User: Fold DUF4143 domain-containing protein from Nibrella viscosa.
Amino acid sequence: MQSDCKFVRIVLYVAVNTAKAWLSVLEASYVVYLLPPVVSEVLKHYYNRGQPAPCYYWQDKTGREIDLLLETDTGLLPLEVKSGMTLNPDYFDQLQYWNRLSGNTPANSYVLYGGTLLQRTSMGTCVPLAELNRLLTNGQLP
Assistant:
C-alpha cells in the first residue's frame, strides 16, 4: 500500500498519511479495493490479450472467502492465493468450503503459492506462482 499512497501523493500533492487515510476510508466503504500483486497479474494477463478479465471475489456473511474466481467455459475456477513456500493443508480450507457449496471438485481447485513445485493433493492443486500464466491460458493444468 505504501507505493500506492506515494502515487496518490504525487498526483494529488497530499501528504502520504493523508493519502493513506483517504484510501482507508474508500476501502472501508467499498469504493476502492487495493488488489494484491497476484490479482493484478491476472488482470494484466487478460487485458494484454484484449479480453475482459472474468475475475470475481466471493465472500459470505460469515467471512469465508475465495480470493479469486475465474469464469471459464466449464464453470468457475476457484483460486486461493498464499505467500508461503511450503504446502500447508490449511491453504485448502476455503476451497473445501466453496466446493461443498458449489459442487466444484478438488481437481478443479487451486492454491497459488510461493513454492516451486506443482503439487496435486486430494483437496486440490498447489500451483507455483511461476505457473500462473499457464493456468490462466489453459484454464487448467495438465
Summary: Residues 1-34 form one domain.
